[in-house]
Amino acid sequence: MIDVSRFYFILMDEIKSKLNTSQSIVVLTGAGISAESGIPTFRGQGGLWRNFRPEQLATPEAFEANPQLVWEWYNWRRELLAPISPNPAHYALVEIERQTPQFTLITQNVDGLHGKAGSRNVIEIHGNIWKVKCTQCGSITDNFDVPMQILPACQICDGLLRPNVVWFGEMLPQEELYTSQRAAAECEFMLIIGTSGIVQPAASFGLIAKQSGAYVVEINIERTPLSEVVDRTCIGKASEILTRIMSQ
Ligand code: OAD
């Protein structure tokens, strides 16, 4: 009979020793890492506002047709996010960054919780809900107003501001994308946490890392399409698994 707890211990030990010896580590996170802070995931339950699904409001077309409505939705999301704190999984990544010579954290989350926890080298590949971008002059600035002025105007040119997040149907910021792909191709160890692995191009980073010879580990509460690609899949909550690895 297989001793599951012994297998689990060996697995955690293997991951910890790779973490300790890798000179370059890339972490890719998705909505699952923020789930334990109380933020609903994209494809899980919850997150509906006035019966709109995110796909109906997070588009350039929706903003063009009704910027007031889209900003009211973002204002509601910002009100929900403002009091939320990072959880032990976010803090474990801060500790890993502290111990690693070359560390890149790529996140698909727009909640800003990695920065709030203290992570430094973070690529927010889908943007950040606490930043705004002018639709006229393109300038990007921080904005932490809750509630916020609707409709907000650019301080430089008075143009209409939009949330600085990537909407459905939009391109990812090119520099962030190239930097992420390069980091994935050059790392020794990639950790993929709490993402369903179905939204491109972020989903391809694990494959890039694997094909370039990295050791790739996934942490998720269930198996995903990425589970077929990675070296190890750890099934469980991100905070529990990361806490376990760090204390190993
Ligand atoms: P999803 O909602 O698609 O997936 C969340 C993943 O987290 C699922 O695989 C869950 O099983 C897992 N999960 C949930 N709770 C967890 C926990 N406590 N610990 C570990 N894993 C957990 O979210 P993303 O993969 O982030 O893009 O979605 C990717 C992108 O799809 C989003 O960034 C968004 C959306 O379209 C844009 O808005 C551009």
Describe this entry's structure for a reader.
- There is one protein chain.
- This protein is α/β, with parallel strands linked by helices and 248 residues long.
- The protein has two domains: 153 residues, TPP-binding domain (Rossmann fold); 82 residues, SIR2/SIRT2 'Small Domain'.
- Strand 2, helix 7 and strand 3 form a beta-alpha-beta unit.
- The longest helix has 18 residues.
- It is elongated, with a radius of gyration of 19 Å.
- Bound molecules: 2'-O-acetyl adenosine-5-diphosphoribose (OAD).
- 2'-O-acetyl adenosine-5-diphosphoribose binds next to helix 2 and strand 8.
- The site of 2'-O-acetyl adenosine-5-diphosphoribose has 24 residues, from helix 2 and strand 8.
Put the structure in a nutshell.
By secondary structure, the protein is α/β, with parallel strands linked by helices. The protein is built from ten helices and nine strands.
Instruction: Describe the global form.
Output: elongated
Distance between the termini: 25 Å
Ligand catalogue: 2'-O-acetyl adenosine-5-diphosphoribose
Order of SSEs, N→C?
A: HEHHHHHEHEEEEHEHEEH
Q: Please state the average pLDDT score.
A: 94
Can you tell me the CATH superfamily of the largest domain? TPP-binding domain
Write the layout of secondary structure elements.
Blueprint: H1 4-21, E1 24-29, H2 32-35, H3 54-57, H4 60-65, H5 67-81, H6 88-99, E2 102-107, H7 113-117, E3 122-124, E4 127-134, E5 140-142, E6 161-165, H8 174-186, E7 189-193, H9 205-211, E8 215-220, E9 232-235, H10 238-247
Parallel strand pairs: 1-2, 1-7, 2-3, 7-8, 8-9
Antiparallel strand pairs: 4-5, 4-6
Residues 30-32, 35-36, 41-44, 58, 108, 126, 166, 194-196, 199, 219-222, 224, 237-238 line the site of 2'-O-acetyl adenosine-5-diphosphoribose (OAD).
